[in-house]
Amino acid sequence: MSTETFFVPVELSQQKHYNNGITFPAVLSPNPDKLSQNKASFSGAIKSSSSALERLLSETGAILLRGFPVLSASDFNDVVEAFGFLELPYVGGAAPRSNVVGRVFTANESPPDQKIPFHHEMAQVPEFPSKLFFFCEVEPGSGGETPIVLSHIIYERMKDRYPDFVKRLEETGLIYTRVLGEDDDPSSPIGRGWKSTFLTKDKSIAEERAAKLGMKLEWMEDSVKSIMGPIPAIKYDQERQRKIWFNSMVAAYTGWKDARNDPVKAVTFGDGKPLPAHILHDCLKILDEESVAIPWQKGDVLLLDNLAVLHSRKSFEPPRRVLASLCK
Q: The pTM is what?
């Protein structure tokens, strides 16, 4: 890969090496002969190497930038801007998160003892980000990695092990059901309230925005049930010419639990029939087996292609502050 020699590839013990020559994820550090520890120099290097970086992202699905002068949320915002991807507003997502600066948000703010299962960002709605950035502002006391896994590998392994299940998924898709309170509940991994989910306090505007997503709302006394789907669980990645495991099925089935939500009812086949628990728990094992979890270091920036890669979060000992940005 030529990135105008500003970036040098780094090998980490956690990376996976595939038969097609791909190393996942790609890890890049500064070339000290070409880059000063100067923020403007780094932003300029990204801009002048953008086509090479995008090619590398297309090949590998994920790039970890380590050792660059990114110290604050504002520095991270500059990095996101330098890549030039358009911003995606966070409408329809489940995670509680708040705006920090510019295009930068907190990552899921659910409690540190909770794991967040593997998912593609916003796979349960039709308009999802194509790229995700994460930034480690404060590295965890312990744990707190963001494991990542290649989606087409999961599709291939699941199809090999459960061909009938995967065929049914391809035929029916999935329905996601979630009960939202009025306001955000930071104690829940899916605690985003309906007002911040639809960026309005007006129920009729919320209904319009839900309808644009293909989502149905059923209002209750102090909450609303959102029903999304049927929506595809398997997609075709046109860029890479392969099928991908693009869904939040395992995340919903194992993690959409709080005072209002029962995860077993959170996701079903597109015809409303329940999903087989033993297959979902086996899928969880496959996701873990194929995943890569690199411990965060302060200043790390992780860029993911949301179509190619699922991500999750391990539980952790505070402090930990990881920020995110979503791109069209």
A: 0.93
